């Protein structure tokens, strides 16, 4: 005789009251489950609902025993899950989820295959869960729903369940991911369900990894149905201007003349699910731009839809989900449809702008890497997923190239900062600047022997403008670069004088220090003045050469910054002064030349130190039908392999003009 649910509930409550931490014995458990099974399979709705409520209580007191699976067979599970519908009361739905989560965890029986089979045959439960999430039900319903999906995927992966692909595709086809995205965007809700969502994220990543590594192509009865679905979508979308795609359309899309065989041999299951979802997307932006591209493209420049879609799918799985490079995006994997769509849209736009060909897809995908890296950074700084997707959509090809070039420079700087190579380049550039300054000094120049500003001011005070000019020096470097030859003149002559024999000689080795003092020309404009002023090009400076006994050896005045740099820094370089002792302008010149030199030389570096073979392309700008696509081949990952002798040998081929 079967006990009614009132009697069963009383027995369960009494056992829990008397034995708060104990579990039932296997025999008693079997009898209770048989009675509940009878009511669940039966037609009495009240007894059915009451039995489900009692099942959720039994979770805490049932023992783990394989003998219980004799009662809890697949027929029982199918009957239980067939009850699930959008109109099911939240309390009853929660009870089913509680019992199902325990089953999937293996808490009652480690044989979860009957449960997985029953859920697969009643897959509508995923849509009901999604509807419950969207309608904003109670905290418990949302939490149990997320836990159910997480445990469903984990159990299917653990058992290598053949129809795991059905679970993953059904979840993807529903708006479940969209609902989870809404939870992650709301900080107050994410605080409540954060752990559940993190567990779900791990389950999904493990599920995708399993689908791509295990041979589910042969395990799943539904796999070929999905391949057929994809082929039908390709037939409708490869050439939107015709009702049915032709052999030419399949070939130009990268699917070969036998698309079914190509998909079976080349597509991972993740590729299959991603691309089906993408082609089902109702957003017409991509389809419109894709149609326009096909209209004006020739055979070699048709956008390879299949190849590009596989590349974006692999990037989102291999780079975003399986590495630590995109931590913030990985936590938003529930926006995968949007991320995939924007990635495909960017692929198409870069393809059109760069006039690329099919062989360039691996290079274009690196531009997508750049865009998503910036998206990941933006997410980390607090931007919403909607804002990030909007920013991704606005990236132009020119924007991405500028970012890539900047990143290449930054990697160079980071990899070679404070190394012997940097010091070597700085020394070499300083020698180059020294030669330039010596060249200027060897030509000689006119400087003032007296303060020109003071003489001018004295004449203005006496109303005697122009009656006396300041005395001039002609300075020149001796032919052996060891001395300065100078001679005083009353005025500057039109021709360059020859003072090698008549001028005074100042040995450079006798110079111990240099001083440069700005000379105030006395033409400052009052702060409150409303006058428009034109800044004079004259910049007077007094340069003093000081001996080892701190005695002034020679002083003269320059009237331009350029003249000051030529003599002051030129003499300092002759005296082997340090970089820090040079003028700011000359230091900046050296820094710019070092950067230019370094960037030019590192282009020639390969990632392996292999003698003469080490001089090869690293960062390249490759021509692609009159356009260039910047590709960073090696990411400087083996920077520590370069030795100083190799770098010196490479840099030896650089010449300055």
Q: Any overview of this molecule?
A:
- The protein is of the alpha+beta class and 657 residues long.
- It folds into 3 domains: 5-219, Alpha Horseshoe (Leucine-rich Repeat Variant); 231-395, no CATH class; 441-578, PH-domain like.
- Helices cover 58% and strands 8% of the residues.
- It is built from 28 helices and 9 strands.
- It has helices at residues 5-18, 26-41, 45-58, 74-82, 90-105, 113-121, 124-134, 139-158, 164-173, 176-185, 187-213, 216-219, 223-237, 247-252, 259-266, 269-280, 285-296, 305-321, 327-330, 336-354, 361-380, 385-394, 397-416, 420-443, 452-461, 561-574, 584-602, 644-651; strands at residues 445-448, 472-477, 483-489, 504-507, 511-518, 541-547, 552-558, 619-624, 627-632.
- The strands form 3 sheets. The protein has a 4-stranded antiparallel beta sheet with strand order 1-2-3-4. Strands 5-6-7 form a 3-stranded antiparallel beta sheet, with helices on one face.
- Strand 2 (472-477) and strand 3 form a beta hairpin.
- Helix 5 (90-105) runs parallel beside helix 8 (139-158), helix 18 (305-321) packs across helix 21 and helix 20 (336-354) crosses helix 21.
- Mean pLDDT is 82; it is low at 606-644 and 650-657.
- Residues 433-575 form the PH domain.
- This is PH domain-containing protein.
At the fold tier of CATH, the topology name of the largest domain is: Leucine-rich Repeat Variant
Number of helices: 28
CATH class (first level) name of the largest domain? Mainly Alpha
* Spatial sequence of strands, sheet with the most strands: 1-2-3-4
Q: How many strand units?
A: 9
Beta-strand proportion: 5-15%
Helical amount: 55-70%
Counted up, domains total 3
Separation of termini?
A: 104 Å
Biggest beta-sheet profile: 4 strands, antiparallel
How does the overall form come out from the CA principal axes? elongated
